[in-house]
Automatic annotation (TrEMBL):
<feature type="compositionally biased region" description="Basic and acidic residues">
    <location>
        <begin position="41"/>
        <end position="50"/>
    </location>
</feature>
<dbReference type="Pfam" id="PF04921">
    <property type="entry name" value="XAP5"/>
</dbReference>
<feature type="region of interest" description="Disordered">
    <location>
        <begin position="286"/>
        <end position="317"/>
    </location>
</feature>
<feature type="compositionally biased region" description="Polar residues">
    <location>
        <begin position="1"/>
        <end position="14"/>
    </location>
</feature>
<dbReference type="InterPro" id="IPR048337">
    <property type="entry name" value="FAM50A/XAP5_C"/>
</dbReference>
<feature type="domain" description="FAM50A/XAP5 C-terminal">
    <location>
        <begin position="185"/>
        <end position="359"/>
    </location>
</feature>
<feature type="region of interest" description="Disordered">
    <location>
        <begin position="1"/>
        <end position="24"/>
    </location>
</feature>
<dbReference type="InterPro" id="IPR007005">
    <property type="entry name" value="XAP5"/>
</dbReference>
<feature type="region of interest" description="Disordered">
    <location>
        <begin position="41"/>
        <end position="142"/>
    </location>
</feature>
<feature type="compositionally biased region" description="Acidic residues">
    <location>
        <begin position="97"/>
        <end position="107"/>
    </location>
</feature>
<feature type="compositionally biased region" description="Polar residues">
    <location>
        <begin position="298"/>
        <end position="308"/>
    </location>
</feature>
<dbReference type="GO" id="GO:0005634">
    <property type="term" value="C:nucleus"/>
</dbReference>
<protein>
    <recommendedName>
        <fullName>FAM50A/XAP5 C-terminal domain-containing protein</fullName>
    </recommendedName>
</protein>
<feature type="compositionally biased region" description="Polar residues">
    <location>
        <begin position="63"/>
        <end position="73"/>
    </location>
</feature>
<dbReference type="GO" id="GO:0006325">
    <property type="term" value="P:chromatin organization"/>
</dbReference>
Amino acid sequence: MSNAQPSRFTSSNKTTHERLTTTTVGLVALSDFRKRRAEVLEQQEKEARDALAATNVAPVPDRSNTATPTQASDHSEAEKQVKKNKKPRTRALLSFGDDEGAEDDGDVNPSATRADKKKKKNKAVTEPEPEPEQGGNKKPAGKVINASVAVVPRALTKAALRREAAERDALRKEFLLLQAAVKATEIAIPFVFYDGTNIPGGIVRVKKGDFVWVFLDKSRKVGADLGVGGEKTANVRREWARVGVDDLMLVRGTIIIPHHYEFYFFIMNKTLGPGNQRLFDYSAEAPPVKETERSPDPLSTPSKSGGNSLADLNALEGVNDDPTYTKVVDRRWYERNKHIYPASVWQEFDPEKDYQHEIRRDTGGNTFFFAK
């Protein structure tokens, strides 16, 4: 029974392990075993190349660097390679369109021409997207970039930046012209000289852009012309000539206005004093220019008599105000009597102070019972 013939169902091709088993019986040295194994691997690769040459297939890669497959797996791989080489390849058409329906497997319909694809693309662009129905939760077909941003800012090009700069410059020039027109507007301020009693002083014409010291200088000239204080001294004009602007104070109500402030500051800010009354209640708008006041020639100069260039004093704003609300006081008199009412309640203007909620007190800290 030991000499029985091998079964016909047994494969005639032996694996590398079987060949090594039959050829390395009785070996003792490791070098002999390695030599026999190299010969078996070389013979097996030679048989595989011969088999592939018979079927006209490209040779398989060298198995010395990879694991040695079985003979059956070699035949199956060879058959797969032959079938793959015999598969007809379809030539892909060149297209420059953004066809969303094109697949990546390389199967392209040969009958589709470039004109058809271009027609489909134009149709997709011209056809509007269907609007979602009211009450529905349909989302737009296309992707919305930065959907969380309510307003997408436009790109600022050099032309847009120049245009915005020109608009800002035009607005700045317009504001400066309006400001200059307001500052050039004349107003009338009635006043009195105060030295414990109200001495009529008259009306001073100033511009809204003038400083307080300009008003005091004009009031000093009015006092010299009227001879205010003549009952106390014989030479009134000489006494007024000795009085400088720094020796005079402007008291508006109970607020001492510093010399360096412009009337324009109080007019534009609508500054309120005690009693919820504006310190200088004048308009912040420029008066309209009358046709008779416009000069046809901008280089022409008005006549010496003034003509239409000087407005009538009675037509100026503020000419009918209470003169006792504006007092011109000698600073030396104030220093001697600032502890006596009403000079004791006068205070210098502070732009950061709220005079509406102020509790009026005397020099001793006692609250006035008539204070609001």
